[in-house]
Write a structure and sequence with these properties.
Elements (H helix, E strand, L loop, with lengths): L4 E5 L6 E5 L2 H4 L7 E7 L2 E7 L5 E7 L9
Antiparallel strand pairs: 1-2, 3-4, 4-5
This protein binds zinc ion (ZN).
The site of zinc ion (ZN) has 7 residues, from loops.
């Protein structure tokens, strides 16, 4: 497996796929776990990585909407 690639079985559609850890973005992370949002087909997964870039947890988000604080 190439470096930085993680294998995941999607909890929504049960497909297996590889995704690339956003190593550049993780460089600036000060606190762990860090949430990484992955778009898979028409749904979203939230993966939590610990400081060793190991998968700590996975959550399912049926949709992702960005909101701004007012
Ligand atoms: Zn999926």
């Amino acid at each position: 497996m190439a470096e930085g690639l993680k294998w995941l079985q999607c909890p929504v559609c049960k497909d297996s796929f590889n995704w690339k850890v956003p190593a550049d973005a993780l460089k600036d992370v000060k606190r762990y776990p860090v949430a990484v949002v992955i778009k898979h087909k028409d749904h979203y997964l939230v993966c939590y990585l610990d400081s060793h870039q190991q998968l700590a947890d996975t959550e399912v988000a049926a949709a992702l909407i960005e909101a701004e604080e007012q």
